[in-house]
Amino acid sequence: MKHLIIRIISLAFLVLGMQAQAMEVVELKQANSNKVVFKVRFANGSVSDPAGKQGLTYATASLMSQGGAGGVSYADIQDILHPWAAGYGAAVDKQVTTFTFQVPAVFVDEFYPILKNVLLAPDFTDKDFSRVMKNQQNYVDQVVRASSDEDYSKFALEHQLFRGGNMQHLRQGTSEAVKGISLEDIRSHYQNAFTRHNVSIGIAGNYNDALLETFKADMAKLSEKAFTPVTPSKANTPAGIEVEIIAKEGAFGSAIFTGAPLAITRADDEFAALMIANSWMGEHRKSYSRLYQKIRQARSMNYGDYSYIEWYSRGGSNQLPPSGVPRSSNYWSIWIRPVQIATQLKSQYEELADINIGHAHFALRMAIREFDQLIKDGMDAEQFEATKTFLRSYTKLYAQSPAQQLGWLMDSGFYGRKDYLAELDTLLENVTLEQVNAAIRKHWQTENMYITIVTDVSEAKPLADALINNTPSPMSYSNLVKSGLSADVLAEDEAVANYKLNVKKVSIVDSADTFY
Question: Within this chain, do residues 190 and 250 fall inside the same structural domain, yes or no?
């Protein structure tokens, strides 16, 4: 087993005769590792974007990580790195921006000057600026709407939850704001928001103390400008259930995301109790969970159905929760992966020729009904023990590589913890069934929620009418599928089809009008 030495140090530097703020340094020494990982995290994120310049933090980090540095072009840097199998990149979230550099230990001395130049001497050329900003503009204008309706619905849900606050906009910004970002804006933002006063650093793997000291001293040379952390806006609480349907030409099914504010984060011990309930209800990509069993397994409606008690980045590709996306402004959510729309069902099955809407209304009712039953009845002892045992094993898989381990340690500091995953195991071990059920009743409710549905234009108006009028939504099966279902499933279908939701507002938004 690798020998791990973990230290978290507060380090104060005197640079140019001025007193710098303490810089958090996270060490994870692994003498048997064949690589070195560096992480440099700034406490800015997209919430630090100035008004009218949404997307500026993303643009700045992108130009640093995808542009020339120290007078060497980006293409030449990549040519240098290729034989070493080394690389780096930047990840911007709502509250932090993290640069990650990875290199085989044997090449670390040659690699380090590139790291230093990327962070301290970015070239910020017109040519790089033009290329990076074209990509960013294309994302907010086209890609976010076209590449994945599942991601689209998730980002649109955040647009509802945080409307009017600095957490509302995409990390990449808004279409109009990105058009107005200049190279001078980026240069200024680099000096104002990527400073030695809001940076924390981490290093993992097989490194020596001299390298660490050099790393610390160099990161103390970042901009000395004062930085005031921006307070993230809190999620709004709707009056009843408010639904926003995004009508999109050619949408493949109805992609659904729902959410409501959540007052706790990993900083709270009670979060572990709610983790158990959430895992039983809808653990990400796990077939044993309740939502998956009811919607996917028993009824074959879609690819999966999950729930979350914090932001889960890139859920379509990540199997495990990633590090690097810590947030203090939190919400819980339900992800119903795309279900079929009426035009699809009618084209496949002549027995469904008379239906007006597809499966979205039924699936939504079923998911909310399952939460209502859990809030009312709680988990039983058997469910609790099985899920608790699973989570205590499963969370040990979260941080498998040195980069993941370092990332989770740095996230721990964000939440005021030293080693969250180790502390979480103790919290899970000690939590009781009574505490879990109390957390369910305290933090989950379905009367006041936001719902976003990305669907085809043909489905938008019929679905909106059905939701606002609480119209019964019988499940639409082909005759062949229905013939194989049990009496219990069909009886439950009847109850779900008539389950009342507290829908107070439904609006339809043209896809072209989102994220502006």
Answer: no
Structurally, the chain folds into a number of domains equal to: 2
Q: What is the pLDDT of residues 51-108, one digit of tens each?
A: 999 999 999 999 999 999 999 999 999 999 999 999 999 999 999 999 999 999 999 9
Select from 105, 98, 113 the least CA-distant residue to 30: 105
Same domain, yes or no: 214 and 245: no
> What are the start-end ranges of the E strands in 16-86?
18-19, 23-30, 35-42
Which residue matches tokens 């991601």? Answer: 151
Task: Dig out the tokens for 368 from the structure.
Answer: 């909310």
Q: Are 242 and 160 in contact (CB under 8 A)?
A: yes
Alpha carbons 433 and 89: distance in angstroms, whole number: 43
Query: Is residue 21 predicted with pLDDT exceeding 60?
Result: no
Provide the pLDDT for residue 22: 72
Question: Is residue 460 located within the same domain as residue 316?
Answer: yes
Do strands 330-339 and 305-308 pair parallel, antiparallel, or not at all (unpaired)? antiparallel
- Residue span of the structural domain in which 284 resides: 241-263+270-376+446-513
pLDDT band of 460, cuts 50, 70, 90: very high
In 73-205, at which residue ranges do the beta strands (DSSP E only) sit? 87-92, 97-104, 199-205
Name which of 129, 83, 128, 124 is nearest 106 in CA terms. 83
233, part of any domain? no
Q: Which of 173, 96, 92, 88 lies closest to 122, judged by CA?
A: 88
pLDDT at 516: 78
Specify whether 21 is located in the same domain as 79: yes
